[in-house]
Amino acid sequence: MKRIYSVLVENRSGVLCKVAGLFSRRCFNIDSLAVGETDAPDVSVMTIVSSGDERTIEQIEKQLNKKLDVIKVKTFSESQSISRELMLIKVKYNKNNRREILETCDVMKANIIDMSKNTMMIQICDEPEKVKLFISMMASVSIVEMARTGTLALQKCMEADS
Questions:
Q1: In sequence order, what E strands does 40-130 have?
Q2: Statement: residue 27 has pLDDT above 90
Q3: What is the C-alpha to C-alpha distance for residues 6 and 60, in angstroms, rounded to an integer?
Q4: Candidates 3.40.50.2000, 1.10.220.30, 3.20.20.80, 3.30.70.260; correct CATH number of 2-76?
Q5: Which of 82, 85, 83 minimizes the C-alpha distance to 156?
Q6: Strand 2-10 relative to strand 142-148: parallel, antiparallel, unpaired?
């Protein structure tokens, strides 16, 4: 079972290390981790994706709430959230595979953001599963380099949010 934790933390050095340490000490796996400042410069949001059984999921939330640097923990499932991941991928191309790459980019709503005579850099921002699909579709060409963010997620809008 996958769970997304949106953790508001104090924006100070060492907080990321403390939270990551909590996971490693208890042998909880982090599938994805992204951290960034919120609209308040002294507060950051950590988006952590982890998986495990019901007990593990509950333990992670309880342990996060015990941390002094943690302000608030929101937990939700993938179906309760909108999530995105950004990837930059550099591929080699030639006259034989150029059209296939362009068509794949068009279908997957990916953008070519840089190009040279033999390589192109492509950007895709989509659901994590679609990013994985794009990688598998690019496997037939020569992938030179790739960089991915962790998953970013917010809970879906509800009328009570207004």
A1: 43-51, 70-76, 81-92, 111-115, 119-126
A2: no
A3: 12
A4: 3.30.70.260
A5: 82
A6: unpaired
Residue whose token pair is 């496997």: 139
Whole-model pTM: value is 0.83
**Type of residue numbered 51:** S
In 3D space, the residue among 43, 41, 49, 44 whose CA is nearest the CA of residue 3 turns out to be: 49
Classified as helix, coil or strand, 27 is coil
In terms of Cβ atoms closer than 10 Å to its own Cβ (0-12, 13-18, 19+), residue 74 is middle
Q: Where are the domains of the chain?
A: 2-76, 83-153
Task: Count Cα neighbours of 5 within 13 Å in the Cβ-side half-sphere.
Answer: 30
- The answer to whether residue 162 scores a pLDDT higher than 60 is no
